[in-house]
Amino acid sequence: MKEIFKALGNVVIKMPQGFYVTFKHLFKKPVTLDYPRKKKPMAPRYRGKHYLERYDDGTERCVCCGLCAAACPADAIYMEPEETEKGERKARVYEINLLRCIFCGFCEEACPEEAIFLGQEYEFSADDRNKFIWTKEDMLVPHPRKDNPFKKILRRVRKVYGTPEATR
Amino acid sequence: MATETKKDTRTAQQAPTVTLTIDGQEVTVPKGTTVLEAALGMGIHVPTFCWHPKLKSVGACRMCYVEIEKMPKLAVSCATEAMDGMVVHTDSDLVKRGRKAVIEFILANHPLDCPTCDKGGECDLQDLTFKHGFDDSRYDFLKMRFTEGAVHTTFDDVRIGPEIILNRNRCILCYKCVRANKEAFGEYDLGAFERGNITEINAAPGREVSNPFSGNLVEICPVGALTNTDWRYKIRVWLTKQARSICPFTSSGTNTLLWKEDHQQKIFRCTSRRNDDIDDGWIADVTRYGWSYVMAEDRLQTPLVKKEGKQVPVSWEEAIDLVARRLTEIDDTKGNVCIGGLINPQLDNESLHAFNKFMRVTIGANNVDHRLDYPMLPAQGDTAYSILSSQPFSIADIDTSDVIVSFGSDMLKEHPNEYLRMRKAYMFRQAKVFTINPYAVKNADIASVDVVYAPGTDEIVVNAICLAAIEEKLVDAGRAAGLKDKIVPNSAAEAAETAGVELDDIKIIARSLADGKQVTFLVGELVARCAEREPIAAAIANLNRLFGLTDKGQVARLARYANSKGAEKLGLTPFPAPEVKAKLERIFGGWPENEALTTDKMLVQMNKEAINAGLVVGANPLLLYPDREFARECLERLDFLVVCDSFETETTAIADVVLPLASWAEYAGDYVNLEGRTQHAEAAIKPRFHSRPALEIIEQLARAMDKPLFESADERRREVAEVLAAQAVLPWPNDYFEVSFDNAAADSEYTIPVFVGDDPHHAGHLTEKSPSLSNFVSEAYVEMSIELAAKLDVKAGDSVRVESEAGKVIVPVKVSDYLDTDAVFLPRNFSSAQVNSLLMRKKRVNRVKITRVAD
Q: What is the pLDDT of residue B379?
């Protein structure tokens, strides 16, 4: 009889005691996300997937100067320039190898034309290694962004030349 | 760096010297040296923009500021002559401040478009700004910008020549391009216009910068104001590597750098690699832009074998086996004499030697020749011409000569590098230049006397000079004894009349040759390609003996192709020089006994079906041999023709087996330039497609025939070195040659003498595949004088039919103001018009008639 009560006491008292933490969290807001249905908002300066900016009139900002590739510590950027009909310089090929990229953001810092930025996106999984090579089409924003949160402080050059847009 | 001084070292040793102190070190330099040159000679870095070692100083950029004690202000070192006792500081605080200020001034109007500028990464202004400038700008106003028709584009680029793009905003007005154009190249198609803030460099109104040296202007530009179209927006300079190469198109072997990228296996451009003994840092456009045929997509990709009348691609093994089998078959059934070999003298030494050994040992035939463009080569070894060809020659000695004669040579078209040397001697040392040619040439503008003689009277002109010297008693009588009896005609006046030249001109030349302290006498292709080259060479030998030219200078026939001299020295002719032959005999272990046949004789024998198989390596005889119909007839009669080439040509079209040949940039090789100097060219890229170097092809063929050529690469190199070391210079004879002359009368219908040579922007059959060079000239033309154009009633650009007895071509007219006789010039090696069809190999002067083609 004594053993029976002891066992009952274990169930009634010890079990809730043991599940205390569990039950406590039942009524708390969960720390995990309902990923992939819900996504975590990233810090404003998070360095995720690269994107290439456009000018307000829609032309690409990147002139394929090669400074990002030169600054890249992982040698992840490959580019080939070409001449447009207007005689301007533009990237014909612009590729970033995600498997090599360490998301240090040096390319963004090196860019003299404010063309490349590291964005918020972080979902890169793929089932083929070749899909980790982003081409220009993958990275170029479809429309010029008016509210680019990463626009740098205009440099002194602009004071001399006006804005880059005005000199185009 | 002592060679930085523009003074000749020979005179510098005797000239007075000055001693000065630069940065605490004492240095003694020849008087007249600038402070900058003295500092650079000591290895002290003084930044410059406008100074160039081969040009006069202007002091335009002020970057080379130095502090000289007891001088009130900073001095411009490139324009300050070194004086005795000068104390110079190149690194004091004042100098640093001065440099900073200069950089700031230059950057005031310089756009900061380095990201789009092709010069970025190799820009003097960029480098010096990093080193000496401020890191920020104090300039707060809008920069001055040039506009074209009030339109601002990002780049404000103007195309001022077929291959040059000018951006005036970037220009820092160092005037290097204008000065080089004027001082070094003698061209006036680029100039500085306006003044002050709006000064601009631009092409002369209505002209474009298309001179044969225009690429150098881009190379010496310290900023990105002048850029090349072939390098434009292709790659960043820091991604490229350089292969040290040699120009394969000119015979001087100008040193070049091929800028390549290893992952892409691509060549991107070619620039100069300064070698003061050869090129002074200037390279001709054909060298600079010619490389791009290597990257052409229509190159031959695989071996082709004719099967049932059609050429089909096959594997290398199959092709080599077939060639080996057929050659053995013909060798066995018809004898080894029945195989002839022609090789292009643009190939490297080892290929040439391997070919020689293959023909003379493996096959055992004596029919080897590299002279595809010379008609009527003698059946036996010639004397005067061989002696003349073998004479030593030094490019650098042209600089120091005080009398320079170019005879029978369109220097600009054939030898652009030596042409620049002539110009330099004229410009910097006031040398007397004489040109003696059957038609007016462009270098005549520096000539004291420009003699244009009647075509076909070459030896008479030379004789006239000799006779004039004897008559005027310019040479001592003992020396002249016996000459007058051996040459025709009897007097200088008569000779001058026959040749159609002024006697006074001849006398001036004779006097200069007699008085000159150092004489350079250059003989060019118009003599070498002439069917009557032997009497002309004899006349020149007489002239040399009379004036003692070799004792006080040099007499040389300039070899035409990149390795012509090498081919001569390696014995790739039917009759090599005796010592070369002895050496080869020892290496080959014997010498083929059959008759040695020159290109001509080979073709004749092919026509008689006495030669049944032919090997052509890297050449296109159908486009080059000066009698197209004859060459075609002969080659088509062959049972078996093997052609190695990089592209499909007229000759590959009739071949039984076509083997794709790698270009010079795809394998390493040695080349002998016209001075006899052996130089090495590195491989820039791997052979493209399935092409192979000539050496590899020949060795494989020999192996397939079970007679390997060499045991090892060492043995091959040793053999080449041994043959090259053999003395190939033949001594001048101790007596005068007899020179007779018989004037062939021109026939009635065809009256206009025609000369076929190279365009300055086109050399060999390969450069046609270079898009850059095609921008300069893409098709054959007929160049004529203004008077002749008026007489024929044609304008520049009109199509005309040029007809000779042998054939006809239809080409556009080009009118040139420097031509002043009726002779016309046609450039060869263009597939658009096969001008060699106008020529007949037995004729000394080919004449044509020109009629307008009705639209």
A: 67
Query: What tokens were used for B713?
Result: 């690469």
Q: What is the CATH number of domain B752-852?
A: 2.40.40.20
Mark yes or no for CB contact B114/A81 under 8 Å: no
Q: B211 and B189 in contact (C-beta within 8 Å)?
A: yes
- Inter-chain contacts counted by CB atoms under 8 A, chains A and B: 53
Residue B659: helix, strand or coil by DSSP? strand
With CA atoms as reference, the chain A residue closest to B165 would be A87
d(CA B630, CA A152): 74
Q: Where are the alpha helices (DSSP H) in B748-812?
A: 771-776, 786-792
Specify the pLDDT at position B748: 67
Chain B residues with a Cβ under 8 Å from any Cβ in chain A? 112, 114-116, 120, 136-137, 139-143, 152-155, 157, 232-236, 238-239
Pairing of strands B752-757, A133-134: unpaired
Report, at the CATH architecture level, how domain B400-557 is classified.
Answer: 3-Layer(aba) Sandwich (3.40)
Given an 8 Å threshold on Cβ–Cβ distance, is A88 in contact with B141?
A: no
A1 Cβ contact partners less than 8 Å away, ≥ 6 residues apart:
none
Domains of chain A and CATH, by start:
50-155 (3.30.70.3270)
Contacts of B169 in chain A (CB under 8 A): none
Omega cis (within 30) before B16: no
Domain ranges of chain B: 2-108, 142-293, 304-381+564-663+689-725, 400-557, 752-852
Q: What is the CATH number of domain B304-381+564-663+689-725?
A: 3.40.50.740
pLDDT recorded at residue A154: 44
A86/B236 Cβ within 8 A: no
Model confidence over B538-564: pLDDT tens digits?
Answer: 999 999 999 999 888 999 999 889 999
Which residue is associated with the tokens 């920020």? B136
In terms of phi and psi (left: phi > 0; alpha: psi -120 to 50; beta: otherwise), the region of B408 is: left
- Cβ–Cβ below 8 Å for B140 and A161: no
Cβ-based neighbours of B404, under 8 Å, separated by 6 or more = B398, B422, B425, B426, B431, B432, B433, B434, B519, B520, B522
Q: Which residue has the higher pLDDT, B103 or B336?
A: B103
Identify the sign of the CA torsion B624, B626, B627, B631: negative
Q: What's the pLDDT score for residue B783? A: 92
Alpha-carbon gap: A148 to the closest alpha carbon of chain B (Å): 22
> CA B12 to CA B645: how far, in whole Å?
49
**Which residues 72-111 of chain A have a CB within 8 Å of chain B?**
80-83, 86-89
pLDDT single digits (tens) A96-152: 999 999 999 899 888 888 888 888 888 888 899 999 999 999 898 887 766 665 554
CA distance B86 to B76: 14
Q: Which residues of chain A have a CB within 8 Å of the CB of B233? A: 64, 81-83, 89
Q: Over the stretch A8-42, which tens digit does the pLDDT of each residue have? A: 888 888 888 888 888 888 888 888 888 888 888 88
The pair of three-digit structure tokens given for residue B793, joined into one six-digit string:
């009633």
Are the Cβ atoms of A65 and B141 closer than 8 angstroms? no
**Residues B39, B185: Cα–Cα separation, whole Å:** 28
pTM for this prediction: 0.89
Of A64, A156, A160, the CB nearest to B142: A160
Query: Which residue reads 């391997």 in tokens?
Result: B354
Q: Which CATH number fits domain B2-108: 3.40.50.2000, 3.10.20.740, 3.40.120.10, 3.20.20.370?
A: 3.10.20.740
Is B33:B5 a contact under the CB 8 Å cutoff? yes
Q: Are B37 and B4 in contact (CB under 8 A)?
A: yes
Instruction: Give A110→chain B minimum CA distance, Å.
Output: 11
Q: Which of B140, B153, B155 minimises the CB distance to A160?
A: B140
